[in-house]
Amino acid sequence: MESLSNRSKVVSNRKMNLWEKIYLPAVIIGLSVTIKHLFKKKVTIRFPEETRKFSDIYRGKHVLKRDDEGRERCTACGLCAIACPAEAIIMVAAERKPGEENLYREEKYAAIYEIDMIRCIFCGLCEEACPKEAIFLTKELVPSEYERERFKYGKDILLEPVDPGKRIDISKRQTKEVLEFKKDKSKRHNK
Amino acid sequence: MTIFIIYKVFLCSVILILSLLVAMYSTLIERKVAAFLQDRIGPDRAGPFGLLQPLADGIKLFFKEEFMPNTADKFLYILGPSLTMLIALLTSAVIPWSIPVIIGGKIYPLQVADINIGILYIFAIVSMGVYGIMIGGWASNNKYALLGAVRASSQMISYELAMGLSIISLAMMTGSLSLKDIVEQQQGFHWNIFYQPLAFLIFLVCAFAETNRSPFDLPECETELVGGYHTEYSSMKLGFYLFAEYVNMFVSGAIMATLFFGGYHFPFVDKLGLSNNTLAVVGFFILFTKITFFGFLFMWIRWTLPRFRFDQLMRLGWKALIPLAILNILITGIVILVR
To answer: What CATH number is associated with residue A137?
Structure first.
């Protein structure tokens, strides 16, 4: 069979010659390999004092965004749930009642919006699919829990606070290219 | 006479404390070396650079629960680690640490006992080391411990032969068994390693096997035998076994430096024009540097080579090292005759 990676080696059972049998050359080669590591840069991060730097576009816990007036952006279209490869998103849509215009931006909203954090693989496809700029992944981590049920994050956890001072900054993930792409109405999913 | 006894007792206690201290810090250095060879930084929580780590380990070992299996032979169970530790410490008695110090016209040799059978003494003591392990493994009444002990005894006895034979060629060349004489003959740069490289190589390999260090750590291999001969040991008894290994490393490093690397001698010593006592101090540090190098070599090899298989170990000992040592004796004999 042809090799795909060119890294495979032919295994043979041939007898070792004298040079190999005295072991010492091989031992010295081994020692020279390890001594080089003595002077290499160490990879250890002394945790409490130092912390590993997060990437600017780290994909952690999700946030459901509100618009500038504090209204929920999500319209429960279900595109994120369809895009999700792990099928972690569940939602129930509801119609906006008169008098709730200050809560929901459009006539339809998600009454229940749940992400199962055990299923989620943090790929970011929900964010890519969302036509309303409503869901984003943040730098926050998902903490560990004692019970599986508690990993089902509802709107109470995911939704961003109304208070302008407590808004979650997602500008790092909302790049220019993403915005340009979403403006392009010729693409079917942006309509 | 009283001064003589007081001096000897003082010297004994200094060497005892020194070897214990070195063994203590060897545990830290071992972990540090292991870490650095694996691109890590090792223990650094206890004190600056982890310098208090050995102390913390010692305290931990002392306060651990003393557990003794109720089927164990109580007397032998305690005798095992004590014997191992005792024997490990005894060997350092004949090592000349430096040239004699002269204080007030009196000569104080920095060697506990300059006996004319120094090398024989070392072999006698080292070969007793196997008893500590054997007794400990047997008394635990545990199959892993017993297997480890049996392995240890067969390994140590096999490698002692090659070790002894490699030293015979050295004794033929130097014409003395006293370590003091052997060191004095190596003054300047006439180190024995240049005249007896093969003997040194055999001695080095055997030293690894005698101290049960990797790649000859079959008696205590964690992967197959749980812990080998000290499986059932806990608390400071376990500490003694682990500690004795480091004391052995220190002492065998000292013996190798003494026999093959000129002990406390270093080249160009007469050009420095130092006084006798300064020279003694410098010589001591020179010897210590050499021992440190061997200690590092022990660790370096441990974190490089995988463990031997048991049949490979036996084949290397009986079919390679012993014939080589005999060949070396033969060559040395011919060279001495021809010269």
So the answer is: 3.30.70.3270
Contact residues, chain B, for A34 at CB < 8 Å = 37, 300, 303-304
Give the chain A residue nearest B321 (alpha carbons).
A22
H-run or E-run covering B101: strand B98-103
Query: In a 3-state reduction of DSSP, which class is residue B220?
Result: helix
- Residue A28's Cβ-side half-sphere holds a number of Cα atoms within 13 Å equal to 5
Task: Walk across the sheet containing A108-116 and list its strands.
Answer: A89-95, A108-116, A152-153
ipTM of the complex, rounded to two decimals: 0.77
Check CB contact under 8 Å for B39 and A30: no
Q: In this structure, is the dihedral angle defined by the CA atoms of residues B13, B18, B23 and B28, taken in order, positive or negative?
A: positive
Is A55 inside a domain boundary? no
**Count of structural domains within chain A:** 1
- What is the residue range of B232's domain? 2-338
A12-63, pLDDT tens digit by residue? Answer: 888 888 888 788 888 899 999 999 988 888 888 888 888 888 887 888 899 9
Contacts of B53 (CB under 8 A, 6+ apart): B27, B28, B31, B43, B45, B46, B47
Q: Is B318 helix (H, G, I), strand (E, B) or coil?
A: helix
